[in-house]
Write a structure and sequence with these properties.
The complex is a heterodimer of chains A (265) and B (632). Chain A has six helices and eleven strands. By secondary structure, chain A is of the alpha+beta class. Chain B is of the alpha/beta class. Classes of the chains: A alpha+beta (265), B alpha/beta (632).
């Protein structure tokens, strides 16, 4: 059985579907596209799909991942990958789009285990550039941001500051300001909503979009599957914006409910 | 959207959805299911009309569903209107707001949707520019409780009549939506369309003394619409595939419409006559194309009694063996209770046999003769024996309580039956279980039981508790039941008249929406509103009707002769059953003869495997059924 890794985007109205909804959509799409997926044994056979980190309902993403086990034992060629990508993209609902496909090793750690951090883009309402910079400075300047939460009946103290790896003010927008932040995912992912709530009152985000997921390969920070031909380690801000404008294209049928779709100029 | 649960309810984007181009010369329909998206999206009737209208050059159709209470709050706080899920267009921008009413308890949601749309809830208060409010679905066989709120109701099959309505609406739109009464008069002239404003109702105390048409266009009696041949209507062709989870999340193919089993409590079986089967070839094509297009791996063959479909064996065999369809499971809702059915089910569920559901409806043979659900003990126990011996472990049995002439002995027979099933199961399974589901009986218009005084809330509750206490004695029997308070409110609207309009309005104004949801249902809202208007459950629900009483729906017709229904009511009281007219001589109920149409049934031979009113002797315990073309 050949295992493939798929990177896809989730943009527009479909962002309001849940992780479970997206899993169901993939099952139907693979059947429609007649891609022969391996099924589990037993009383109720399920297609062998494994999804990466969940994406909160309402957030967009340019970097979602999925691994699929195919019935075939043949190695995936570049041509084959392109063919599957095309088949999927004509079948997927508007708003979900495959960006890249590559062979994955079955020995690989699961996506959930191997991803260390995610880069997020936030469109914040009612905040100007300079107050945004102040906010960033105060968050990054804090030694620790301790929260107490109850988990399984026990009070757990967590330092959120350790999970905030990077924040940058990008630009002013019509409604406020755009931020980029890289948030850790191990041992537990810091959710965008928790990040926004590290200050009181919390920042209010109109749009949240996952830009990248990152894992470590040796010392190198890499994406599980890059949309570029070459590796994309340690993305700089320039890289991120360039990647967004060059690689994320809408297919002309984007389910647009707002003018500023990411990547559409 | 971050303030509401399940925002995917409101985004549309289903596979099969359209984004129609609105134009001044096209009638714009907003098809609304006044319950949640998850319940409303799969509705086949709405999807059929959505396609038929969008295929027409002079119409466009979009969809909307009742926003959950959180969303309704967000809309009101932000002064936003009810909108379509397809293009997010405000509801009031459409020419027609067409509601699908499948259950009485959604009536307050109808008012909620109108109010959110910014349309006056009362027909009389609507301005020329307001859309027309039209309702369809089974509840329209007695739309009188909502007569104040609707402009028109459509009786029967919608496939043809929507086109005729569209022509009236385009004319009204072309004239600048000026004469509302002109449009209503034109609608009243269409066969199958009932315009409440065209009739005046007079009362004598609790009962109606007369109903008179007041416009020349309005007929004395409004007849339902019936499509003669389902083969002409292979819809939906593009069943909607939602992005988020809904009920019945699978491909649905309607194999026939109508049922002549003649169960006397069943409104659906009475009002949808005659039986019209879809040709087996067309069913197969719809399955193959539908599965390929949607990506579903499950198909349901829908009808009121799918095992009665003449082509059932071939269709099932072709589907489960069709390599083109991949790994497909077939589900057959509404199954008869007999061994034949279990045979089919065994072919369908080769791997996992967990639960099987039957609906004997009543516990004693006497009671089943009264309701004309002629399942013999042989039928039932051979089905149960067959199911347990073939690996099923759990049985679910549906029953009604509060049926005419029901004694405590009949009621308790339900539990005897359940226990006997468990005993049979023990010979095959280590821990067989039976779940008994109890519904309170609500008499419906155009059924032989329309004259019957429904059991009081107290009486229903007493019977349910009687069963509950009995069920406690045997630990393999579980019991579930419907809230008897909701049952009597349903009864109120089932046979109510126009005087209930203010009651429904009061309940809605007091916040009583989503009344079919137990977390929102509040009987005190109804009791108080009834009192305020000098009305009672006694007058509408509990009271027996006499033969000569004018029913609120007597100026409407489902094709059934009233004397046929009355004779059936007398026969019920005398415990006399009536056979199925598909395979026995016609007893002239009126549904065929009145409209010059006939049953469309591919096979003149009754289905194998059971007596059940087919005029055939029961085959008793002889069980195994070999399905042709199937190999296990």
């Amino acid at each position: 059985m050949t295992r493939i890794r798929v990177r896809f985007s989730k943009l527009g109205k479909i962002r309001f579907t849940s992780h479970r909804d997206v899993a169901r959509i993939w099952e139907r799409t693979l059947r429609k596209a007649r891609i022969e997926v391996a099924y589990s044994e037993g009383f109720s056979p399920r297609p062998k799909l494994s999804f990466g980190l969940a994406l909160s309902n309402g957030h967009e993403s340019l970097a979602e991942y999925l691994e699929i086990e195919l019935v075939t034992d043949e190695e995936l060629t570049a041509e084959g990958a392109l063919k599957i990508k095309e088949q999927l993209n004509i079948t997927l609902p508007v708003g979900l789009e495959v960006q890249a496909i590559a062979a994955a090793s079955r020995k690989d750690e699961s996506l959930q285990q191997s991803v260390r951090s995610c880069t997020w883009r936030f469109d914040i309402d009612d905040l100007d550039i300079s107050s945004a910079q102040d906010w960033v400075d105060s968050v990054l300047g804090a030694e620790e941001i301790v929260v107490e939460r109850e988990r399984k009946g026990k009070v757990v103290v967590e330092d959120l500051r350790q999970q905030i790896l990077f924040i940058q003010v990008v630009e002013a927008t019509d409604h406020g300001v755009r931020l980029l932040a890289e948030l850790g995912t191990q041992p537990r992912a810091l959710r965008p909503s928790e990040f926004l709530a590290v200050s009181d009152p919390p920042l209010k985000a109109r749009y949240v979009c996952r830009m990248n997921q990152w894992m470590l390969q040796g010392d190198e920070r890499v994406e599980p599957l890059s949309v570029n031909a070459g590796p994309a380690p340690f993305a700089t801000l320039a890289d991120v914006t360039r990647r967004e404008s060059t690689n994320v294209r809408t297919n002309g049928r984007a389910c647009s409910d707002r003018p500023n779709q990411p990547g559409v100029n | 959207m971050d303030q509401v649960q399940k925002p995917a309810r409101y985004i549309g984007c289903e596979d099969g959805a359209v984004t129609p181009k609105h134009r001044p010369d096209k009638a714009a329909w907003l098809l609304i299911y006044p319950d949640t998206y998850e319940v409303g999206l799969p509705n086949q009737g709405l999807q059929i009309l959505y396609e038929i209208l969008n295929e027409r050059p002079d119409a466009v159709a979009e969809r909307s569903y009742a926003p959950w209470t959180d969303m309704a709050g967000v809309l009101r706080n932000n002064r936003l209107p009810l909108f379509s899920v397809d293009t997010h267009r405000p509801a009031a921008d459409f020419d027609v707001l067409a509601f699908n009413l499948s259950a009485e308890l959604v009536y307050t949601n109808l008012l909620e949707c109108l109010d959110l749309a910014g349309v006056p809830i009362r027909s009389a208060d609507r301005r020329p520019e307001d859309p027309l409010v039209i309702v369809g679905g089974h509840c329209t066989y007695n739309p009188e409780p909502i007569a104040d709120f609707i402009d028109a109701a459509v009786l029967g099959d919608g496939e043809e009549v929507v086109s005729e309505i569209t022509e009236v609406v385009t004319g009204w739109k072309a004239s600048g939506r000026t004469s509302r009464e002109g449009a209503l008069r034109a609608l009243a002239g269409i066969e199958g369309v009932y315009v409440p404003a065209a009739y005046t109702v007079s009362y004598d105390g609790q009962v109606i003394s007369g109903v008179e048409p007041c416009w020349p266009e309005a007929p004395e009696v409004v007849e339902k619409r019936t499509v003669a041949d389902l083969a002409d209507w292979p819809y939906p062709k593009n069943q909607l595939v939602p992005l988020t989870e809904v009920v019945h999340d699978r491909l649905n193919v309607e194999v026939f419409r109508g049922c002549t089993r003649g169960c006397r409590f069943c409104q659906a079986g009475m009002i949808t006559r005659p039986v019209r089967e879809r040709p087996a070839d067309q069913v197969r094509t719809m399955i193959t194309n539908g599965l390929q297009r949607t990506g579903y791996d499950e198909v349901a063959l829908t009808s009121l009694s799918t095992a009665d479909f003449s082509g059932i064996e071939e269709v099932v065999a072709a589907t489960v063996n069709d390599a083109d369809c991949g790994q497909v499971s077939v589900s057959l809702p509404s199954l008869r209770v007999d061994a034949f059915t279990v045979g089919i089910a065994a072919e369908l569920q080769r791997a996992r046999r967990t639960g099987l559901t039957f609906a004997p409806e009543a516990g004693s043979w006497r009671m089943r003769q009264v309701i004309n659900k002629l399942i013999s003990e042989d039928d039932l126990y051979s089905a149960v024996e067959s199911a347990y011996s073939q690996g099923w472990r759990r049985m679910k049995l549906y029953f009604l309580t509060g049926l005419p002439t029901e004694t405590d002995e009949d009621t308790l027979a339900i539990m005897e039956m359940a226990r006997k099933c468990v005993e049979m199961g023990k010979t095959h399974q280590r821990s067989p279980s039976v779940t008994v589901s109890i519904g309170g009986f609500v008499p419906k218009p155009f059924t032989p039981f329309q004259w019957f005084g429904q059991n009081t809330e107290e009486e229903l509750r007493r019977k349910i508790y009687l069963l509950r206490d009995d069920a406690k004695k045997s630990h393999n029997v579980q019991m579930k039941w419907h809230d008897s308070r909701a049952t009597v409110v349903e009864g109120l609207m089932s046979r109510g008249d126009r005087r209930l309009g203010p009651v429904i309005e009061d309940v809605w104004r007091a916040g009583g929406v989503f009344q079919e949801w137990s977390e929102h249902f509040d009987v005190s809202l109804w009791t108080e509103a009834l009192e305020r208007h000098g009305l009672s459950f006694e007058g509408y629900v509990y009271r027996h009707r006499t033969e000569d009483e004018i029913m609120p729906w007597d100026h409407l017709s489902a094709g059934l002769h009233k004397d046929f229904l009355w004779q059936e009511w007398r026969d019920a009281l005398n415990e006399v059953g009536l056979e199925d007219c598909r395979w026995t001589p016609c007893y002239d109920c009126g549904a065929c003869t009145g409209y010059g149409i006939e049953h469309v049934v591919a096979s003149a031979v009754p289905p194998a495997g059971g007596s059940q009113g087919t005029g055939q002797p029961s085959n008793g315990g002889a069980v195994p059924v070999q399905l042709s073309g199937l190999k296990s």
